Structure to design on (221 residues):
């Protein structure tokens, strides 16, 4: 299936209307950013930093400036296409179920986005959709990458929950936490195990990300 056929396929699957524009490649993105720079300098700068200069960002849905546009670095990134198109679906069909805070508005929101992004419901949902789409279309590398990306967000969410439980318990039962060797050892062990699991998940995701990048750059040549 070609990239354009995947676009039509996903549009049909998600029920997205046909106004959606997809700009492929870095040159197209650069032209787009220049076209909005006069009217929207902060967003142009933000897209430059978050998308063009970032090695790990393969695609972006710039909903604050254009809700009918996706920027994607290569036509080989079909999983990324599915991920970004799911964001379009979230914005257009389920807007109130997700949080829409514009990271390009100001520095505070940009920094807040860096903290929220690894545990975000929006990212989890988009990664799950991309994983299932790649599995259905038998794209092994992309399926593996998104499978581990889903695990990573789930682990991050679990770690945050664990951290909050530990903080809450320490506040509520300080004597138990500071004077009982058993509870201190248990907490340290649980935190250690979760930390190791998070490291394994992140390494697996990175492994498939690199595999995907090298396969795509070979195909692009
Ligand atoms: Zn995303």
């Amino acid at each position: 299936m070609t990239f354009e056929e995947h676009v039509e396929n996903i549009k049909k699957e998600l029920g997205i209307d046909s106004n959606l524009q997809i700009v492929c490649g870095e040159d197209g993105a650069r032209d787009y950013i220049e076209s909005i720079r006069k009217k929207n300098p902060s967003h142009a700068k933000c897209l430059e930093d978050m998308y063009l200069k970032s090695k790990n960002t393969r695609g972006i849905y710039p909903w604050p400036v254009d809700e009918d546009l996706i920027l994607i670095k290569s036509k080989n990134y079909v999983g990324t296409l599915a991920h970004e198109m799911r964001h379009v679906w979230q914005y257009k069909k389920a807007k109130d179920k997700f949080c829409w805070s514009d990271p390009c508005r100001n520095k505070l929101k940009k920094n807040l986005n860096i903290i929220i992004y690894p545990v975000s419901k929006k990212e989890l949902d988009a990664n799950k959709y991309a994983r299932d789409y790649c599995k259905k279309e038998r794209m092994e590398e992309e399926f593996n990458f998104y499978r581990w990306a889903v695990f990573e967000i789930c682990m991050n969410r679990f770690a945050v929950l664990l951290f909050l439980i530990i903080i809450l318990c320490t506040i509520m039962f300080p004597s138990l936490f500071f004077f009982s060797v058993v509870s201190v050892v248990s907490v340290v062990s649980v935190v250690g195990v979760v930390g190791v699991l998070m490291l394994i998940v992140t390494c697996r995701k990175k492994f498939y990300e690199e595999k995907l990048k090298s396969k795509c750059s070979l195909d692009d040549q």
Remarks:
- The mean pLDDT is 88.
- The chain has two domains: 3-120, 140-220.
